[in-house]
Design brief:
Length: about 150
């Protein structure tokens, strides 16, 4: 059974599974912290370089943590959910609830965000190419309503 932690008085799910996933938790993602609502962890798996033009990593989010809206230019981003529960949203579309096994493709130029649900740790693999343009934070009221809508 997964260890549960309390987040804002609510038990958080999937902590042990995320912290002990096949790729490990990774390091605190301080380089991208200005673009995240909470803590995230990054484990680089395949850095882009001269002979490989994509990067691959494992990104883990504490409960409630999610990134800002952003766009990938001259490339794309693919996320493959491995552990926990999260959200992803493309601008102009409803948010998508995510669980292990889900795959989301963000095409070149698509404004989007992704991250953990409020009560769950969350990990996805990321495959990306191109440059990232970080934009405004996700509206916190809109994010908070996602879990409430799902509970109905």
């Amino acid at each position: 059974m997964n260890k549960l932690t309390k987040v804002a008085g609510v038990l958080a799910k999937n902590e042990a599974a995320v912290k002990h996933n096949i790729f490990g938790l990774g390091e605190l993602n301080t380089g991208s912290s200005p673009y995240f609502s909470g803590a995230s962890y990054l484990k680089g798996l395949v850095p882009s370089g001269d002979d490989v033009d994509v990067h691959v990593g494992s990104v883990s989010f504490e409960p409630g943590s999610h990134n800002n809206w952003h766009i990938h230019h001259d490339g794309y981003q693919i996320i493959l959910v491995t552990t926990g529960e999260g959200w992803a949203q493309i601008a102009g579309q409803p948010a998508q609830s995510l669980k292990p096994g889900d795959v989301v493709v963000f095409h070149d130029g698509e404004k989007h965000w992704h991250g953990a649900k409020k009560n769950s740790w969350f990990t996805h693999l990321v495959i990306g190419k191109g440059t990232t343009e970080w934009l405004e934070p996700v509206n916190q009221k809109d994010y908070d309503q996602l879990d409430q809508q799902e509970e109905k």
